[in-house]
Queue: 3 jobs
Job 1
Amino acid sequence: MLLLDRTLLKMAKGLWKWIILLVIVRFVNLITVTYFAETIGGYLGNLFDPSMGTAEALAAVKAAFAAAVVMFLSQLLQGELEYRCTAQARETMRGDIFGKILELDAGSIEKIGPVSAVTSSVDAVERMQVYYSSYLPSLIFSVIASVYLFFRLRNRYLTAAVILLCVSLVLLPMNNLFRSKIENLRKVYWKSLDDMTSWYLDGIRGMTTLKLFERDLEHAEGLDKRAQKLNEDINGFMKVNFTSFLASEGLIYGAVILVMILSVSRMAAGNMSVGDTLTILMLSYSYFGSIRQLMSATHEALTAVSAASKTEEILNTDTSRAYMPEAQKDPENMPGIRMDHVSFGYEGRKTALRDVSMFVPKGKVTALCGLSGCGKSTAASLMMRFMDPQSGHIYLEGRDYLSFTPEELRKNIVMIPQTVTIFSGTIRDNLLIADPDASDEKLYEALSQAGLKSYIDSLTDGLDSETGENGSHLSGGQKQKMGIARALLSDCEYMIFDEATSSVDPESEQEIWKCIGELAKTRTLMIISHRLSSIRNADVIYVLEDGYIREHGNHEELTKNNGLYYQLCEEQRILEGALV
């Protein structure tokens, strides 16, 4: 089956040398097989010839033995080349995929999702590498082998050579008739794999919750259904492949039997020698060896093409970001961050921010509050330039955001997210992410400001203590403090706290707010918090509702207005009182 996929061919850079070497080795093996068949055919044809002596017989045996040795060595070399090809294919493809993922900003990564990233870089690569080590060499070799054997057979029996060549040339187009069905099945198959992987990872990550609510068996049933669906889709592939295989084998054996009948009839009529007849019979069966290799590689090539369709989505994701060094400066030229009539919406969802204008003055504390889903985190992401607004402008100290590269911008602004990611390794490794050249003195200073120094001092290995997988050796509060320490090490003037205390215990929350209070003396802070009592001292508070700025001012001004902020404060006060 002719499966020439544009994505797979594009990713074959650096692999063609191995593919060509594999074709050459297979061709050398074919020449040796042909020579072996001709030697054995000639020897058996002359076996009962009185003129044949011991020297001729010994020469034939030596020639056959030499051919067998060459065939053995070529098979070993082919295996080594296939190994090296697959190794480089894995390295190259994973490098391309990981490189692309690293180019993506946070907004684009969310679109792809972690499951797609995992399946593309792990499962997809394992399927695609066979395309280069097996399918492409087999495809090229099958064409070369058919033409070569035609010229080797035509002098013995032209009719047989023509029949075998015609059948070999018909096989690929005939198999390609199944391509339309495969095109329909491949996306379904890969979607099922994605769905099952996602369900499985959700079960692993949420095992505690599932056990807590006794839903583990129910989740297992859901995984079983998805596994069955994936199995059905795989069987669909197998059925198409088997049908293709059955049609091909029927045509091959039909051609071999026809050539056998014609050759034996010609020999019986005295128009062909026994040696030529035996050679034709052996080579006619070997004639389709390359086609068989191609067909055996076709099923794996099908999954490779299917995997490539998913990988293509990642590789084709636009990672370019608007960069306009000469962008118009803020006409108001205000020191701080200013959003000017900004709107933004996610694909397939309602607009998150609608004509938002707000100002984060330098050296002050600005707060952003509102109900869940009102657009607070979207505003923070736009300020970090994880995404660009669909309309409006954002300015940093008078310069349009588009006049900065994202990397330049983030030397001025840092964010402490709701959930801080801790990587496997040591505490030192995690801190040096923010400043690779930081001295121990600077690390301890940041930890001290974040309220973690006493904890680090209590550890036997200090900064070289292991954090565990995903920071499992740290509590939720300690992880958030690590995030603050990282932010301090970045030396950024502007710091955004996006619900930084929403997932910590009350004691850690108080410590973090104390740290934020100290930072307010020297940094410009944007605080997003659901706890309204913690932002009452902010210099200015913006209240979001359904993507709109409903009101802004300080705590006293907003409570006097009896507006949305006042209602939220009252509801929270009543709720906290009821809980007490």
Job 2
Amino acid sequence: MNNLFLRLIGINSDFKKVFFVNEYKTLIGVKSRTIVTLLVILFLTFLALGFAVGSLQNLQKKMDDPFTNWVNVDVGSDETANLADKIIQRYNDPAVKDTFLFQHSGGFTRFNVFFFERNYLPYLHKTDTLLRSFWGRTIDVESSLFKTIISKESGNQIWLAPKLEKDTLELNQCEIVITEKMMELLGFKNADKIGSIGIEHERRIGGEAQFNKKMYLPIKIVGVVKKLPDVDFVCIPRLYNALNDRRINNKRCGWEIIKENEKGSTQVSLISENGQDISNIEKMAMQFFGQEDISIDLRHSVVSDSQEWVYMNMSFMPLDVPSTDSIQRFIEFSKDKIPVEEISKIDCDIQTCTDLDYKNYHYLAFHFDRLYHIEPFQQDLLEKFNVEIDMTQVVSKNNFALVTRLTYAISLILLGFAVLSVLLFVNSLLRTHLYKVSSNLGTFQAFGLNNKFLVGIYLKIILSFLGVSILIAYLLAVIVDLVEGSMFGLESRFDVFNLWVIGAILILIISSWILSYKSIKNILGDTPGNLIYGR
């Protein structure tokens, strides 16, 4: 045995070394069978604890995940819609939030939008081609749900624009965050190269002779994530209000925020493939309309998947404003020479239409710290407002909370059983050996070897081969942890780098020392004569 190791544990004299080495070899058995058996028991113990604790941590992570710990109340009936504001007020009260362990309460709306695919060119294709329908929802950017959606720690983030990376949690220009699946379905491959995605915007135009006008409206993408709660994209309420022309504070949000080419306007918004064609477009406009006071100024560019389109304003004199039909004929005339098309513009700088009217809620959302208070909340909601939650939600959340508690209890039982198994094995091994060699030890005592020496030597032997077994078993468990972690990533359900395993090791060592000390003292505390003759 290594002399350095013997010196570290206080075995210095030749007699002590010989005694320690011989007894150590005897205890570990032929071909180290004892230590191999102990190693297997400890390795299985670490595996069991690793899977139990890993599963508990995975469940706990889901318990803390706003994707899991929320309940939606459908605002489908007029009665519930009229009560929505009062319901939110009650459950945002600090005292009530503490009672039910709420993180956040609020309402949101789901809505459908048609997006143009990546290959769509506004100056080439018709506005009803290359379209895909996706579902979105409004979201509170200060909510725990949104913070989880965009956080790196949750593993949900794929790409975020710099301003969101810096925790500026405001989609102030009516941008949206989309899922990876939506990005792929639209034909985009690189999240950071998307820029803007066009949507089909339809507005009711005209007085008596009204008609629906469909326009191309670019929406900027500021984030791509793996998943969103039952939708394809999220946005702030202002964008929803604008796209659906909701009336907030006696203002029509669509007309306030979305700027389109209107009848009688002195400016016409256009999009072109190349900003260098501005002068040529001006010449064609002067020729087509027979006017010399037409000017075009460059506003900004619209980037979509590395394609840069130029947004510009074509200005007319007030008395020479052409009709909407004339503008459309000019665009058709220009397309043969220079690609150009009408474009809408969204302006979310103005501080209006920021809030979601509770009458427009589709769902009330309640985010919990923990899921243990689902049933009391369900009962309270029913008693106070006569509003019921879908029972499937309640049952599933309760089952989730129950499984978490059961896993926690099983982990404790498993820890106790594992420690007890190792202690019984080590103590049985030690007691069997001491009874077997008790006559020899009695002889040593008769010749003057003190009891303190024997107790110390056997304690060091037990702790040495227990320590070696623990170290090897733990290293093998670490290898399993690394392999399992590389295979399952964030969904890993195995973890030996935790306080549970460290606690189990400390309990094993301390308990083994105490139990071994008592066993040695009980057996060797007798007189030399009784030990020699087995009395």
Job 3
Amino acid sequence: MDQPYVERRLAAILAADMVGYSRMMEADESGTLARLKTCRQDIVDPALVRNRGRIIKTTGDGLLVEFHSVVDAVKCAVEIQRAIFALDNGVPPEQQVRFRIGINLGDVIVEDGDIFGDGVNIAARLQELSEPGGVCVSRAVRDQIGDRLDIGFVDLGERSVKNLVRPIRVFQIALRTQDGELVPTAARLDSSAVKPSIVVLPFVNMSGDAEQEFFADGLTEDIITELSRFRDLFVISRNSSFVYKGKRVNVQEVAKAFGVQYAVEGSVRKAGNRVRVTVQLIDAETDRHLWAERFDRDLADIFAIQDEITASIVATLPGRIEAAAHERVKRRPTGNMAAYEYVLAGKVLHHRSTRADNAEALALLDRAIALDPGYAHAHAWKACTLGQTWIHGWCEDPAATQRQIAEELDRALALDDNDSDVHRILAAVNLVRRDYDKVVYHQERALSLNPNNDLIVVQQGEVLTWLGQAEEGIEWIKRAMRLNPYHPERFWGHLGRAFYVSRRYAEAVDAFKRIVRPDPGQLAFFAASYAQAGDLAAARSLADEVVRREPEFSVERYLATLHYKQDVDRAHHREGLLKAGLPG
């Protein structure tokens, strides 16, 4: 029996999709539709007509287009991305329209004006692999284009994608600048970006040793990968930054090409059985060095060294970037700050732990949420700041504040289940509620999402201490201190508490001594440590200071604010406080 005729043809297929469409619609439905309509009418549709593209189908935020010529398809994609970037110049980042585009050349099945088959599926997968503002193409497209257009290609290697058994070779289109350099078409952000943006340039091998070339490249890739875990950083991909490998670069020009605020550069040098890595963080806007570090290590286990250095750099950089971004905030009028900057300023005020700063932090976080209701991080930090008002008694209705905290956290989690800070704060809030199962779940989730965030790592040590596993907690807290040499002094309080619970009283005393301005709770712990160590005079002196600052202090009220799971740990703490002479 004859098989029904199936019409097939070779076609260039372009798949495009708007980035962040759902989030933007939720924040501003009418504005988003208006911007998308303008983009279609003024840029996309005219480009399709000029390059003889036929729209096969559209969705609310995307489209599938067929071209008879692969050259026309690529020309059209480049025209669209260039024109959209020019259109968005000066537009607030949260309102910018960005497309991901994928192009494939392959065999398609034609039926009732629609097209089907692997050729279409591969174009859709390439679109998903593209960066915002970028264009990814298959090997067939790269081979057909050759040198017909004044563009280049960055080889992203073979990628396994869903619904396809075989991997596909992916290339990213790069445009040639006036100086002849190739710059990927990926989206660029200006200095008003919602997130701080950073490019990690390939580390330079200064040794002349080929083995160190692999080490330098691996170190660069690991730093990019780990920085990408921080949801509040926009990190240029490895495939884009490695365009500059082996070239002499001007950091400001590279940062301008990518539209980023910060750049990381470094070098690797081998000398005998030692390896030296230098790294520096640069503010591209001012060409000012914000941070620099040098690592000297034995070459016994080069991969362990790579892991150690990566962890140290990645733990330090976000804090240095946040501090630098805060300086930017202070230099700008408040009315011009983007949502991220409101959150940043709110965090800084929260950390000061005063009633007035807390109120101002809440006001800034509310502004951030008004600018971007879908900003999970803002909701999470509002919950954290409300938690501070509840803990210190700065709220008129504690029960209402607790409900508001729960609502903000539920909102944050619904918006972004992959934000490590959302889970970190949820773990902390559930610790106050003494819901230990939820504490463990959210803490482990936060740690899996970002194992190099010092705040998450130190909280792991805190959680273990409260659960009765203080010895293990000590190691996590020490790790957080190694990760971030600039850690806040409260880390010493966490370490002192863990040492006390572990009955290592002399070490607890040494840790509490490092706190320059201890609060009454830390002083009480300090007094208990001295008492258990046998220095009752020092313990009594600290106990007197606690009562002087808080005349209504009592051991039982104080213990009720702590989060011990094990009764034996609470009893042990009570013993030390009473031995120090604090009123029961």
